[in-house]
Each structure stands twice: as structure tokens, then as C-alpha cells.
Design a protein that fits this description.
Blueprint: E1 5-7, E2 10-12, E3 18-23, H1 28-31, E4 33-39, E5 46-51, E6 58-60, E7 68-73, E8 78-83, E9 92-99, E10 115-116, E11 120-124
Parallel strand pairs: 2-11
Antiparallel strand pairs: 1-3, 3-8, 4-5, 4-9, 5-6, 7-8, 9-10, 9-11
């Protein structure tokens, strides 16, 4: 079992920025495919960004390309999501997730990720 803990959420005005963090045990971040997903009220959980094993490939949903940046710090076993130019549609609970591996066709599928954090709320007004 892999325990993931998100932090960094909050309330921000449109156009603002937030950086989310996802702390993981051991070498989880460097040895797994890691993803960020979000869920708004009455909506399905949707993919936001993904980073493959050892950070070799990075993926973004079209809605966040150019505004969000996923990164990882292997020394700190932490995954990040830098969110800039936020808009109200970015509001939701953001989750990080870990999978054994991912590729361009799989990173966005929730079912590929067996491990999830508890989520952190982001509100953009």
C-alpha cells in the first residue's frame, strides 16, 4: 500500500497561482507513474497531468496545457503541480495518484492508478 498526502490547496482569485504538493513514502515518486486528477461537484474525476517513471514523459490535459506544470523532486519524494493563470473552472478537489507505469494512452485513465491521496480543495473565484 502506498500512502499519498496532498497539500497546498486553498482559495485564490482568477488569474492567481497555487502549487500543490503530494508527499509519498520511500522512492514512490521516482519509481512510479504519478498523476494529478481533479473532481468538481457533480462531475467525474478527470485527469489533469501525469509524469511517467523517472520523469521521462509528461502529459497534460488540454484544458491545463500552458498553465499547469507537473514536476517531481525525487530527493524529497514529492510530486508537485504548479497551477498558474487559474480560472473558476479549475475549482475542485485535486488528487494525486500512483501507478506502476503509464504511457501516453494510459496516464489519463483513473483505473490505471491503484493508489490515491485524500485530495486537497482548490477554489478559484
Amino acid at each position: 500500500h502506498v500512502q499519498l498526502v496532498e497539500s497546498g490547496g486553498g482559495s485564490v482569485q482568477a488569474g492567481g497561482s497555487l502549487r500543490l504538493s503530494c508527499a509519498a513514502p520511500g522512492n514512490t515518486v521516482s519509481r512510479h507513474c504519478m498523476g494529478w486528477f481533479r473532481q468538481s461537484p457533480n462531475k467525474e474525476r478527470e485527469p489533469v497531468a501525469g509524469i511517467s517513471f523517472a520523469g521521462s514523459k509528461i502529459y497534460y490535459a488540454d484544458s491545463v496545457k500552458g498553465r499547469f506544470t507537473i514536476s517531481q523532486d525525487n530527493a524529497k519524494n514529492t510530486l508537485y503541480l504548479q497551477m498558474d493563470s487559474l480560472v473558476p473552472e479549475d475549482t475542485g478537489v485535486y488528487y494525486c495518484a500512483a501507478a506502476a507505469y503509464c504511457y501516453s494512452g494510459s496516464w489519463s485513465r483513473k483505473r490505471e492508478y491503484p493508489f490515491w491521496g485524500q485530495g486537497t480543495q482548490v477554489t478559484v473565484s
